[in-house]
Amino acid sequence: DTYKKLVNRQYGQKLSIEELRDSRKLVLENLPEFNSLLISKEYKISEKDFNLCVLFRLGFKSKEISNMLGLTQGRVSQICSKLLRDVFKKNVGGATELMEILHELY
Q1: How would you class 47 by CB atoms within 10 Å of its CB: exposed for 0-12, middle for 13-18, buried for 19 or more?
Q2: Structural Rg of the chain based on CA atoms
Q3: CB atoms inside a 10 Å sphere around CB 14
Q4: Which of 20, 30, 60, 84 has the fewest CB atoms within 10 Å, counting from its CB?
């Protein structure tokens, strides 16, 4: 049900705090490795960055995520580059590369 609600909202308004909380809960309950890596104190990922990762892991594309989080596509790209560099030690790449890495985390 949570995923269906998110799919319906991907081109609409920014997600509410409750919808973001539900999306995080969906991923955290089903993908413990994803959770333990990304919330590790070593990386200090902000809540906004974590939400972006959750939505990527749920299969949404960067344009959809920019709508869902109320960010520009440029900002989404910046966050992706930062996460790739800081968390995954990749000096190049963007949303596609981040999405591929996140989908390998279970």
Answers
A1: exposed
A2: 13
A3: 13
A4: 30
